[in-house]
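BUG: 3D viewer hangs when loading the predicted structure for this chain

Environment: internal workstation, default settings.
Expected: structure renders.
Actual: progress bar stalls at 90%.

Input used:
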Amino acid sequence: MAQPKLTAHYSSGGRVEEIERGWRLSIPAGDSDSYRLAQLDDYARLARRRFPHRFPSTFSLLARTSSDSIPGTWGFGLWNDPFGMSLGFGGNLFRLPALPNAVWFFGASKENYLSFKDSRASSPLRSAQRVVANGFIAQAFRSPRFHPLLIAAGGAFPFSRKATRTMLGRIIGEDGVAVSVEVTEWRRYSLTWEEKRASLEVDNVEVFESAVSPNPPLGLVIWIDNQYAAFTPEGKIGFGVLSNPEPAWLEIKDLEIG
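Structure tokens produced before the viewer hung:
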């Protein structure tokens, strides 16, 4: 495995600083009046079709956070930047939104709802599909570039967000598990991405294995912010920024990807 070339992004007091063998990503304390971000990635100036990672691929790093209850989101892994977040960084490429493809470790405060599945789908009487919407998650999404149901979903959105969400749940493959680990202590997080399988490990112990494997290409992302996003089974949509009374940070070391 090798060290990737990373670009730093930050806003509203966010910082990305080098530390021994790695980086410290931090955001200051503040109210819910501005978006605070610190991020490292290897795709910011690339068109989505030129993102650098394809299966088979592996990823490993040491990480710890300032708290196990950070308002907003944080994490690391591989994704396709589906919401075109690069639009917020000056000089970077504009991307149209896309359906999500990702495999990652994701920390999400309780205001988030990061699943397109109905929680009832986790019942053993219906499906083995696991549904986790917030907390510290090991998660994978797989989506096509286009699906005929997207036309119906777009048409239904002004009339029924619940119906739109149901259709997106049929299009987007998804799997995830809650990970019970003390994130404030140094842990080794590892990821293996294959054509028909994704797996994630903590301290060399597998915590997640799934046939939901994202479609390539993907980019590497490491971030911390005060943002939340929610699209609940009831069809309620929430999106915005949160106050964080204390500064928050994510430290990583010994990053390797191959």
